[in-house]
Amino acid sequence: MSEAGVLLAVDGLLAPARGARIHFNGPVPAVKDGPFTEAKEIVGGFWIIDCASEDEAVEWAKRCALGGDAFIELRQIAGEADFPPEVRAAAEAARV
Q1: Verdict on whether the full-model pTM lies above 0.90
Q2: Residue 14, CB half-sphere, CA atoms under 13 Å: how many?
Q3: Domain residues of the chain, as ranges?
């Protein structure tokens, strides 16, 4: 992927025990420190690839030799157009 120019970033993540979750469900965000015993699956790392379509991203992911019982979940990075107008307006106001 690197040689083809589609790999933009790759990194591993520390264990959930070293993290925190911020839950936005009310006027004040609630913070819970890890570990998260209710977690059945965790994200161990991420790759950012630049592809023209989801189909192209799937084809690149299928080439990864992870072995074992591993899996890759493809997710698109949210762009400005993916957010509601009021969120975009608040972000614009914060930039000024």
Answers
A1: no
A2: 6
A3: 7-95
Q: Which helix (H) or strand (E) holds 49?
A: strand 45-49
The size of the chain, in residues, is: 96
Predicted pLDDT at 26? 81
β pairing state of 45-49 and 7-12 = antiparallel
Q: Which two tokens stand for residue 23?
A: 């839950």
Token pair 């690197």: residue: 2
Q: Are 7 and 61 in contact (CB under 8 A)?
A: no
Residue range 33-86, pLDDT digits in tens: 887 766 677 777 889 999 999 999 999 998 887 777 778 888 888 888 888 999
Instruction: Please report, for residues 15, 61, 84, 92, the alpha-carbon distance to residue 12 in angstroms, rounded to integers and kept in the order given.
Output: 10, 17, 31, 31
